[in-house]
Amino acid sequence: MRALISSIVLAGSLAIGGAAMAQPLVDSGWMKSNLEKPGMVVLDVTGRTQAQYASGHLPGSVFTDYAKDGWRVNIDGAAGKLPPAANLEKLIGSLGIDNATHVVRVPLGDKAVDMGAATRIYWTFKVAGHDKVSILDGGYTEWSRIDPKTKMPANQLATGGVQPQPKPFKVSIRQEMLVSTADVQKAIENNVPLVDNRPNDFYVGLSVSPAATRSGTIPGAKNTWSQTSSATVELKALISSAMASAGVFQPRVFLGRPFINLATSFSQVCEASLRSVPLGMN
Questions:
Q1: What is the mean pLDDT of residues 89-95?
Q2: Is residue 83 within 8 Å of residue 104, measured between CB atoms?
Q3: Distance, CA of 172 to CA of 129 (rounded, Å)
Q4: What is the mean pLDDT of residues 25-36?
Q5: Using CA atoms, how far apart are residues 272 and 204, in angstroms rounded to an integer?
Q6: How far apart are CA 131 and CA 176, in angstroms?
Q7: What is the pLDDT of residue 43?
Q8: What interhelical angle do 115-127 and 266-276 show, nearest 10?
Q9: What is the structure's pLDDT at 2?
Q10: Rg (CA), the chain
């Protein structure tokens, strides 16, 4: 439960602050039209090795290793937490990004979970006070596809590497986008909705994530009915029965109300938060 609570984050609105905004998702057509424009850095967060990146990537895109470069840190025994501001400033600046840069992340796009790293970095920038951030819809897989009509690559790929020129980046943490254990306790007392974004079998306590120390969920939390990738067919039958009594999260119930997203990992929270934006949820 400690690991669960430590990863809770308030889903921030796209309307935060007065800085210039960027649309959360951009498509390949937009990318093709804007790829060479100044003031934009494309981050390759495909999860591939650096050698794989060098064999083919979006022209000008900068490689970063989500798992090893310091986007997540362990603090007081809790995994996957937000790095200290000084660490973020050094990491982001080393990628050639300053506070005026429009940052576009490119996930692999091969399966749904590939969005985890991209959305985690997306919300890291948001929490750090930087709003000019987007994600390439479909990621590298969509960009590198073969056009079925011409049988030719739909878009250009580059090889080799890109060495960015480090720039100064200033982090301004938005404390209102972070939630503490005390905040969650207060939310429970005031009937603020808690949204558990983990797989359903984790929610009802039939399975336990390796990152968690206890099964179950925070009292009062409701679960999103997402794909239960870790469950067997037999487990899914048990889950369906358990969900009937445990309650299923319905987005329309929370429209116009503040709520708290929670999960075992920060990446799950970030992906759920991005899904909340088109629904007008804060």
A1: 98
A2: no
A3: 5
A4: 94
A5: 19
A6: 15
A7: 97
A8: 80
A9: 38
A10: 19
